[in-house]
Design a protein that fits this description.
Helix content is about 35%, strand content about 10%. It has one domain (about 1-325): Spore Coat Polysaccharide Biosynthesis Protein SpsA, Chain A. The strands form three sheets. The protein has a seven-stranded mixed beta sheet with strand order 3-2-1-4-8-5-9. It has a two-stranded antiparallel ribbon with strand order 6-7. It has a two-stranded antiparallel sheet with strand order 10-11. Strand 10 (about 295) and strand 11 (about 300) form a beta hairpin. The protein is an alpha/beta fold. The two termini are about 40 Å apart. The longest helix is centred in the N-terminal third of the chain and has 14 residues, at about 40-55. The structure holds guanosine-5'-diphosphate and manganese (II) ion. The site of guanosine-5'-diphosphate has 14 residues, from strand 1 and helix 7. The site of manganese (II) ion (MN) has 3 residues, from loops.
Length: about 350
Amino acid sequence: GANKNKYRPMKWLTENSYPNDLQAKSPKAALISLVRDEELDGILQSMRQLEFHWNRRYRYPWIFFNEKPFSEEFKAATSNATLAQTEYHLVPHAHWATPSHINQTLYHNSLDYLSLTSVGKGHLLSYHAMIRWQSGLFYLHPALAAYEYYWRVEPDVHFFCDIPYDPFRFMQGTGMVYGFNMAILDDARSFASLWSTTRDFITAYPDLVHPEASLDWLLDPQTGLTYNNCQFFSNFEIGSLAFFREDEGNRKYFDWLEERGGFYYSRWGDAPVHTLSVSMFLPPDRVWWFRDIGYQHDIARHCPPPGPSESLAAAAAAAPTITGHRASTTSTGSSTVTSTSSSSSSEGEEY
Ligand code: GDP
Ligand code: MN
């Protein structure tokens, strides 16, 4: 019955087993990283694990961004860490420089405040350029114009389990728009006024909010009105570039935030900004929790639950409508499961 097939992985999601015509339609997707030369060891660590546990089978390109030119050493080392193509791009100056409408006095006062509270790295000038770019500008980079999906990778993160399917193909096959791995609570002082600014935006543009959007999960149960500070931990993101580039709500929302200067006068991070954007402009069923990807950033870590991959199950469920044929009707056996175990059957080094 239906239940038996529920956890059957879609053949086309797994390594080398999908039909050629589907293989040909592999999504245009890239692994992207904003990174500095001095973070070379860190990005090599992230690359080694993601390549070992996943990308060596898929060979999606790596695209690196920096506000300064990368050194030859950085390029040589990173291109040697993958069999896929690598690209190195400068962030356009206008996307990194502090915009002229920002009041420098207010900005420097806020740097002082943020260093007193020692919230994150909010006292660093570069941090403000970084959160602004990651919030609303990265997807406008010409190097990504031909791409449909991105997977954001930071230096020094960990992917410690095999990923037995293609998350990009999963996004495309299920019509998902945004994927996350962890949701966290951050220090509310770091994004003071983001919530009231967002509420003002909703009041100004109620029609841009998706009719099925749900913001309930972001509301403090005590007041029912204030932001509970929950956010997708955006150092891991797998998303649709078309959504960020083209959704009118998302574009207008970023412009609204930009005008009010909170990337500088506060520390409106890309994590709460993307969380709010995704929650306002998408129905919840377009957002996916990649719970079957083992991942760690600093002290925050997510281990996949044992048992069947829910992503594969969701893909199988979506497949009849998406591919126009039922992929799993021929089999009646008990469910076959591609597990997300951390062991690797591969020869050689493990990461
Ligand atoms: P945190 O996760 O909030 O502590 O912020 P990180 O320091 O990890 O920075 C987030 C991402 O932006 C990482 O991929 C960093 O490598 C990158 N990043 C941060 N600041 C800069 C910068 O000034 N220049 C460049 N090129 N990358 C940066
Ligand atoms: Mn980080």
